[in-house]
Amino acid sequence: MKTIIRREFLEHAQSLQFMVLLVLSLALFAGNGLIFVESYGVHMDSYQKNLAFMNSWKSTVRLELFRLPNSLVFVAEGGDNKRPSEYYLLPGGQVTAGSPNLRAFKLPPVPPLDWSFIIGVLFSLYAILLGYSSISGEREQGTLRLVLSNSLGRAKLLAAKYISILLVLLVPLLAGALLSLTIIAGFLPQLLTLANVSRAGLVFIIALAYISLFALLSLLFSALIPRSALVLLVLLAIWVVFSVIIPSSSVIIGEKLAAAPREIQTARMFEPMVDKEISAKIEEIVKRGERGGFKTEEDMRAAADRAFEEGQVKVNQFYGDFRRAQRQRLEAVRDLSRLSPAALFQYAAEGVVRSGPGGEDQFLQQVGDYSRVYDAYILKKLGKVVPASNFSFGESVTFNGKKISLDSPEPREYEGDKSDFPVFSERQASIGAGLKSALGDLLGLVLWNIILAGLAFSAFLRTDVR
After folding, report:
1. What's the predicted TM-score (pTM) here?
2. DSSP letter string over 225-267?
3. Fewer C-beta neighbours within 10 Å, C or N terminus of the chain?
4. How far is CA 198 from the centre of its chain?
């Protein structure tokens, strides 16, 4: 078996295909490191400036919070460069993004040059090119029967071919990954912490499981189909389905299965709802006040405040329902795309490095935890937390012959000492949390490997070597 592995490895390693893969891999991983170094420096400079502003601006009306740039987006970017880095926290727990999310759930038109893209496209394709003729090619040449005439069994021969493919792919993969890390270490040595290197190592292991899947797939069809040219054609079609068709069609199908109102539809529904839940009630209070329906001016103001607060709860629920529907559509798209092992690998890598939607959710959860501390501080200083709102009212009314103005309550700025103002600090997720997030997708890759290994072995046992 060792002889077969050595022979297969040397045959592949001395080929022009291998040299092309090695050079292309080194070029892409070098580009990955250089692009990351430049972009990370820009993002960190901006973050440091924003952080200094955030720590100096202590307000009980509105806070600006900023996400720390992910130091592992060179491994799996996950669309983070298209997500907002600035968020506004308002009293009452309301959080809004400072810039629109341009990548709700669709893939970007130009994929980022991260590890997950290089491995997902280049190495999966080359695994097919290495394995498509492993069995069918030897059968066409008549050497398969000679090899099996020795004491080596079919299971060992298949395992030897599988191991040789992985070893050949491991060389440019490891060389490229080390080159990328070396470039990053040369310019940004502070990023190569034990935690970051460990996360990158986990993604590397997941990448091996992903590449292994395509190696087994190529061996399966090489055993099923006697003609190598036809095997290659079938495998390339499957690769296109996994890499292009399923991710693209999942967006369309996911939108149909998880129907969600679009932004313009939501905007059109907003004004009638505010009129119903707030404006109409405030108008009724104004009329009641003019008829003498309140004993004191304070009673009328309190009724207006209650109506406004109750209406705001309804409006917040409306926005919450919209965001949940959007998130359900995102999850539906991602779940459908998981039919492709390419998506499983992508999402597993994002989970380990905490990029993509999971990383944003983690940040927003921390903001939610901080908002409770923030509201407690406001309550302590001002005696009341007035939730911020995206809408307001102002009505003039005659009460007991006097003109008064009813205005919607608004958060107030505390003018006293703010030395004890709570500081927001983003916490990085542990490696265990990242692995837990990626576990489902990783198990999906393992399941693919187990199924394909069983099918490849079964097909090879039935292969006619004559």
Report:
1. 0.88
2. -S-HHHHHHHHHHHHHIIIIIHHHHHHHHHHHHS----HHHHH
3. C
4. 19
